[in-house]
Amino acid sequence: MRAKLPHTEGTTDRDGVNLHYEIYGDGAETILFVPTWALIHSRVWKAQVPYLSERFRVITFDPRGNGKSDRPDNPDAYTIDKIVADVIAVMDEIGVEKAALVGLSFSSAIAFAVAAYHPDRVSAVISTGAWSPIVPPKKERADAYANDLVDHPQLWQKYNPDYWRKDYPDFVRFFLDRVHNEPHSTKQHEDAVAWALEGDAEMLIMTQEARDTPEIAIDEDMYRKVQCPSLICVGDNDDVTPPETSFAIAELTGGELQVFEDGGHAIHARFPARFNTLMRDFLARHLGTWKPESRKVTSAPKRVLYLSSPIGLGHARRDLAVTRELRKLHPDLQVDWLAQDPVIRFLDANTERVHPASKLLANESAHIEAECGEHDLHAFQAIRNMDEILIKNFMVFQEVLEEESYDLVIADEAWDVDHYWHEHPDLKKAPMAWFTDFVGWLPFAENGPREAFLTTDYNAEMIKHVEGHPDVRDRSIFVGTSDDIVNRDFGDGLPQMRDWIPKHFEFSDYIIGQHPSEFGSRDDLRVEFGYDDGRTTCIVAVGGSGVGAALIQRILKAVPLARTRIPELRIIVVAGPRLDPAMFDLPDGVEMRAFVPDLDRHLAACDLALVQGGLTTCMELAAAGTPFLYFPLRNHFEQNFHVASRLERYNAGRKMIFAESDPERIATAMLEELGAPRIPNTVAADGASRAAAMLHELL
């Protein structure tokens, strides 16, 4: 799912070529992202647009030859003067008098050309990975293009028009591997390859044949004409265009030069947190646009910013329990929550303070729902595909800390903050405590070697981050004990989880929102909820993320069969805050409820529960001693490996495979669990207070 959609889309006809554009935001100043080489289209700016469009009007358009723009079949249609004119045409169509232009690689030259030849239309230029003929290209690249194609070409020998015609997909994969040559850049590479495969070899060849034009010369004199401020960003390990190109442009234009250590050609994609921050602050200095300004906060003696994972409600319940214990140690503590739906609804119900910047966050739960199939969520890939949402939300978080002073950030599986602060430790603005109930991405054997490679790569990056920058996390708290670590390694050549995790984490034991031992007697609960009428009460609950519709529908089909064996069976379905109860056809007598804020108390009072494989709900049931069936989502590594391993240790719940669970099997399992309930091992009641004591030391 995209982090933000345009509020306006359109096309402009420039001499018979339709150019597709998109507009985001409505700020007073305009940023126009100039399309780069037509190998790829405007989605290349996905890590910048959602964030910057909160403060600016942002325009993107697809280059002639790719995306939703037309694809002329004449090389003369791809000359530099025509592409420069495209920029002006899009601005005219939208009614933009002046804009800051952002260019990548080839479009760096286009942006500077527009600034040189149309100075009244350009307020600033931001360049990254600049291409320009003022510095000779890499010799092996130039030679490969100019010479005949060799047999069995390797590496840069593939940079040849005949090879593009012969095997365009292989060239794309090679070239974009050089664009994204930094370690742990698999997602950026995959995205770029997908965009490039929307084009073709003939179009690419035409763009090369037409690059030189007498009307507009990309030379040193052109750069000297540029009068507006410019920011030139470059990676010192750029393997596509020589970094010396950017150095020369900075000298000729008098622009600000920013060199990214170990950066490749597309640093805006690989290091978006730093790039976005540099760009925002550069525009603020030169155009007077907005940037965060630190303001003095006079309030509680201690202030905490709490980030609770929005995927489901389990994290929110345990985080609230930790907060309440922390307030016992710091009665005047102010806690601000940076949160999303459905967590906000839970926090509102508990009269917690939600930070106003929360409204700027892109919704992660909605993304997870969009990624879900029929009881199938490839959780690892869903997190990977959430990259543009995560960078948008990180920038919102970072702005909060740039404006306000907090004594502690508590990050409960806030992957964006942990990742980008480890990438750029200098961006860290406050002490951070990191919470998680699992460590390590795990592949499914049936998904093949590519998934195993990717999970290993992500784990290797995490290990490098933690070991290389141990000061980023001031406290790393594993929600559980060392016995809850799965008996696996992090991947080929990486350590065993049970060896590595205890060296880098402390253990709070399990944190439960409110332990069932505090609810009073089970009999009293049953009276309170009306479950004492002699019927067998079964609760069906699928969590707060909205991915449980298929499971509810399957269980509803099992209800008539179950009732033939359990005549006094009462079924209560809790759809959760993100599923509409009206979407389900209910058998007679089935009760449907939406959001139940005290669901944990109901689960402690019922006779049987049927749930997804989320850790929080399953552990609440284990703590209450309630029999339950749990149905892990297919391809959800956490539920199938980390959670299942923990539940096995606690002797809690019966694991059901959704694909193998027809209504008959579900009804049979319900009867069997009621007839021979297992006795779970004890779940700790003091995990929240232990965690609070660890946090107290940071305050």
TrEMBL record:
Keywords: Hydrolase. Residues 539-676 form the Glycosyl transferase family 28 C-terminal domain. One of its GO terms (molecular function) is arylesterase activity. Residues 30-268 form the AB hydrolase-1 domain. InterPro entries: AB_hydrolase_1, AB_hydrolase_fold, AB_hydrolase_sf, Epox_hydrolase-like, Glyco_trans_28_C. Its EC number is 3.1.1.2. The keyword Hydrolase applies. It is an enzyme of class 3 (hydrolase). It comes from the Bacteria. The keyword Hydrolase applies. PANTHER family: MONOACYLGLYCEROL LIPASE (PTHR43798). This is Arylesterase. It comes from Ruegeria meonggei.
